[in-house]
Write a structure and sequence with these properties.
Layout: E1 2-13, E2 16-28, E3 33-37, H1 44-51, E4 59-64, E5 67-68, H2 73-79, E6 80-83, H3 95-105, H4 110-123, H5 139-151, E7 157-161, H6 169-186, E8 189-193, H7 197-203, E9 206-211, E10 214-219, H8 221-229, E11 231-237, H9 240-250, E12 253-255, E13 258-263, H10 266-279, E14 284-290, H11 294-302
Parallel strand pairs: 3-8, 3-9, 6-7, 7-8
Antiparallel strand pairs: 1-2, 1-4, 4-5, 9-10, 11-13, 11-14, 12-13
Helix pairs in contact: 3-4, 5-6, 8-11
């Protein structure tokens, strides 16, 4: 569905060439749900724009939905949907009319566009809002309308750029319910960016991390967390001196009276670890096991936290 080799994009900044994307290799098979993660300025949006034909690559090649993005941009656009960060619907048409007009722009006949609009209104729970103006909708409702506009021509592949940004938790959950329903109903391949790491962790079957214009990690969320971050045992002791002794004994790190030890399976390792400390005369006040997050993965890879990155506008 997506096959890119050496995909690169350069920009001129004060007459100097700056590489925003530096030779990306990427393969996405039909039916996958892929989360594309990275901090602001990492190259996420530039990559999406190249894959959706909005920005030509400086070098490298990419085929999307079976067509070359540079030589066959119209064919690519006919096979994909793209939902950007900003609202797509205008303010002067009713919701259903906006969908029908979008369908007509993709070459659907009026009756076909109307039938497809009604189908999407039902799928995305927008039917009661069909005669409303987009400007009267809530943030979550407008986002569902954006997704409907991206699906009007039945694309095989849908790109979603920060689909839940700025929404309240309830609306975010509803958006994800509808996104996941697309796969069940249509088998749509989904490629999305998000800065909500828990979304990628819980929803995506594959996570691709980009930083500095290069892909630095690719796998399932569980694989990345196990391989690059790992479980931790976290204990507190009575004094900083005891914590330092516990850290030396268990191969962990101490900060004040708190000790963190990376282990393969924390719940299984905890009892034995506590027995070892007790035998050494180290009194443990509290103990817990901690599963890693995708932000721990990013921190391991780059030394920076992705969760604390600025939220996109």
């Amino acid at each position: 569905m997506i096959h890119a080799r050496g995909l690169t994009r350069e920009f001129k900044v004060k007459k100097e060439s700056v590489q925003a994307v530096r030779g990306i290799d990427l393969d996405v098979e039909a039916g996958q749900l892929v989360a594309f993660l990275g901090p602001n300025g990492a190259g996420k949006s530039t990559t999406l724009r190249m894959l959706t034909t909005l920005l030509p690559p400086t070098s490298g090649t990419a085929t999307v939905a079976g067509h070359d993005v540079a030589r066959e941009p119209a064919a690519v656009r006919a096979r994909i949907g793209y939902v950007g960060q900003r609202n797509s619907a205008g303010e002067d048409f009713l919701v259903r009319d906006e969908l029908v007009t979008q369908g007509r722009c993709y070459g659907l006949r009026t009756r076909e566009a109307a039938a497809r609009a009604d189908e999407l209104l039902d799928l995305l729970d927008l039917a009661p809002l069909a005669k409303r103006l987009p400007g009267t909708l809530s943030g979550g409702q407008r986002r569902r309308l954006d997704i409907a506009l991206g699906l009007i021509h039945r694309p095989d592949l849908l790109f979603l750029d920060e689909p839940s940004t700025g929404l309240d938790p309830k609306s975010r959950a509803e958006i994800w319910e509808h996104i996941l329903r697309l796969r069940t109903t249509y088998g749509t391949t989904l490629f999305l960016t998000t800065h909500y790491l828990e979304e990628a962790d819980n929803m995506a079957e594959r996570v691709v991390i980009i930083d500095g214009g290069r892909i630095i990690a690719d796998g399932t969320a569980e694989q990345l967390k196990n391989d690059l971050a790992g479980d931790h045992i976290v204990i507190t002791t009575g004094t900083a001196q005891e914590a330092e002794a516990a850290a030396r004994l268990g191969g962990g790190t101490a900060e004040g009276a708190t000790v963190r030890v990376r282990v393969a399976q924390a719940t299984a390792a905890l009892p034995g670890h506590l027995r070892t400390l007790d035998a050494a005369g180290i009194k443990v006040r509290t103990a817990e096991t901690v599963r890693p997050t995708l932000d721990d993965v990013f921190l391991t890879l780059t030394g920076r936290s992705l969760a604390h990155d600025d939220v996109p506008a």
